[in-house]
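Appendix B. Extra example for self-study. Work through it before the problem class; the solution is given directly after the inputs so you can check yourself.
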Amino acid sequence: MGADDAELIAGCRRGEERAMEALYHQYKRRVYGLVTRIAGPADADEVDQEAFVRIFRGLSKFRGDAALGTWIYRLAVNAALTYVTRRSTRNKRTAALVDVPAPETTPRDPNLAARLEDALTSLPPGYRAVLVLHDIEGLSHEECAEIMGCRVGTSKSQLHKARARMRDMLGPELAAERKHRRKRGEG
Amino acid sequence: MRCRDIDKLSSAYIDGEIDEVRARAFRGHLHQCEACRERVASEADLRDACEQLDPIDPPEHLWRNIEHAVARAEIADAERPRVWLWWQRARQHLLPAAVVCTAALLAVVWWNKRNHQDMNESFVAAQPSTELHATLPPLETAVANNKPVPTQSFTEQRIEQIDRADARYMAVINELKGMITKERKRWSTAMGRRFDKQLATLERRARAQRSQVGPPESNPANRDELYAVYRAQIDLLQQASFGEVPR
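Solution. Structure tokens for the complete assembly:
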């Protein structure tokens, strides 16, 4: 943990607004991206807010055993996964009470990035979290395992399965993109 | 390497996590198998696409919402009962306290167990041996064997003990006299006379004491004088057995 982080943490513990805002700005993009991709864009604001409340209130218990970034990621992932679990339970309960047919899936964007974001929401939450942490946020398996509270082997195996599912979902788009790239390369 | 191996290793290969030997075999299979080649290329493209995804900026108003949410949570804390605040502070020490209590409990259990074991060992050591059992009179044997004790009054028990003590003194005195009968052949005449005289005096005193205290049932309490005479007789006989008779 660097001296800047230590000062920031000390300031947040004292309840200094400036320190809290600085911490927020330092991690806002990463946390927001993470929770948006795990919980979905519709609920991202709510989950992000919940994650930061947990972070600020939990800082008094942060002992510096892990890096501050890793600790913040862990709280954000936990907040997002808790939210997703709660939402799916709520949805199941609603479905049981009201027998309404599920809405049709949203039409897919031809743009690959948008398709990718869309496909991400179809993954199970655990796979989604490890894919976001490893492939999008660029963390190592060791960091992923620490954040997710699992073994490195579990993180690797979950990522492998997540990629296989994504590949199955995006296979045609990825192949088309590859062909297009080759043509451009040949041209 | 086969297609199913490629399927298992594709992720690790893309991340550069497999060793060079397997990586070469992996590439060798890709040269031959178009389906695997496409699959691995798709997975690599997927990872690249993930890496190139744009970061998502949170909306501007979110910080204000977070500030408000933190403030609301702190207000809720202020409204909680004081016991809750105490509990929040105390529960940080709960785990260490639980560890210390468990250790103390284990130590007490171990100490108790050890003490109990020691007591058992000393109890076993205090048990009379089988040989001793055989020599014990019926009363002690009965107690030692945990058999029902014959019902006797205190006086009856006392008389029995006195009879037994008298019998033991007499047995010792007679045994020593038997030993001295052999030894006195080596003594001088003067020494023999002196011994006989002293022994006769002590026997007279013993007889006088016996007649004075009477039979055990009449006066079972005061026999100390009689036993002192018996002990004096035994001392004399012991000294004489070593060839020494006091003048």
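Self-check: Chain B touches chain A through 33 residues (CB under 8 Å). If your reasoning did not lead you there, revisit section 3.
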